[in-house]
Amino acid sequence: MRETRMCNIACRLTLDAKTTKQFKEKINDEYRVNMILDNLPLVFPARRLDQESPPIYQLGYYVGVKGQSAGKDERYYIYNHLSFTVKYHKDVQTDTARIVGFEVRPYSVKHEYEGKWNEGNTRLSTCDPHTKQTVVNSNSPQEVEEGKEIIFTYDVDFKESDVKWASRWDAYLLMNDDQIHWFSIVNSLMIVLFLSGMVAMIMLRTLYRDISKYNELETQEEAQEETGWKLVHGDVFRPPQNSDLLCVYVGTGVQFFGMILVTMIFAVLGFLSPSNRGGLMTALLLLWVFMGLFAGYSASRIYKMFKGTEWKRIAFRTAVMFPAIVSSIFFVLNALIWGQKSSGAVPFGTMFALIFLWFGISVPLVFVGSYVGFKKPAIEDPVKTNKIPRQIPEQAWYMNPIFSILIGGILPFGAVFIELFFILTSIWLNQFYYIFGFLFLVFVILIITCAEITIVLCYFQLCSEDYLWWWRSYLTSGSSALYLFLYATFYFFTKLEITKLVSGLLYFGYMLIASYAFFVLTGTIGFYACFWFTRLIYSSVKID
To answer: Are residues 168 and 188 in the same domain?
Structure first.
């Protein structure tokens, strides 16, 4: 610590055919070397075009670089000399110091020495602190060729810094595009205002008019000629087809919603900073497991309302269905990574721990929640359901279920899509994501948008005397996941330069999991909004 070193020799390597091929592949694929010192990742400071502004930090440094030689064929050069700068903050009282920065400048140098190579006391003529001969450029670079000898060297320089230890991460998390985020928030707020206006109009004008009109229709003749949503009051709370599956999906969505909400609150309060590696992932998994209580509770409440009796079956399906689908995709992806002998594969022990969390904690909690939910009295419908279902009249083309479901997904996706770009960039292009404040705002906007678009479309649907709203409300806002996946595909082809099959499969596998989770989350928000809305309007009309 605080001892400057120049031209330390790390090792000497003579390239054979296999190593040469591997180095060339890594340089071609732009691999980066990452190091950590005192929990700080190594950065390469790249200057911006305007010299005034602070440099952009790139995580790690490239293994090497490709260049054209005079003969026009491509040559590969390896960075074999690293010049480290360690920044420290000195405590005035005790004269101790703490590390607050870790930077590197890589160079490619063809090192030379006189005489025979002698481990430990060879002096390089290209880099010698005694003759003040140091490496400051890559003018005579080290080529990667079979049979060539490469000598790896490094310098360490210590610099005092004013940055305090507590704020040493600030340079990494510098937000360089605040404007874009504000633009995205404003864009989303416009969508929300537009929708809120529509909902308010429906609620006040139409519903108020409808309800007062319906409640005035006292005479028998007028009652015969009812139109609009009141007509279907005898069918609107009829349990849908596959009602069990709907309960399971709603339960899973509640679990997901709870997980995201609590994680976001923790992140906004600053508990999940990137300096704590893997903190975010751990928090998500643990919260998912403990939110099983709410999943079981909400699934069995709705199941009981649908006159279901076998609560254990619903509890089991809620506890197992979503995690089983996700973990099977994950397992396949992990097998692919494992087949590539990558260090990114999840080890067997961790897999076992995840399965234990799922079956040891999550499943029992779902059962407890289901039991509690099923013990409570069933939710009463505001109107009675007729014995015989009425016929649904011919619908206009724009009220076709598929069309209205696809339309419903556009606005919630539009509300989050700019923030999505940043999240994808941080996941796939190795940058830090630390704008949880913005993300929380966007999440709130997403909830409002999903709820409002579903209510608007649900109202139009009931007005055209189509009472099959249960699944439709879930799918209307859930269809935004389809747009999410399409956007991820677009992002893959425009922003990422992935050529290997396994990497592509990994990308699409993970984005599929993300889209599926997004479907469950947004669908549930839409379902509950519509559920509340229909109960509200049908409990406010007098029905004989």
So the answer is: no
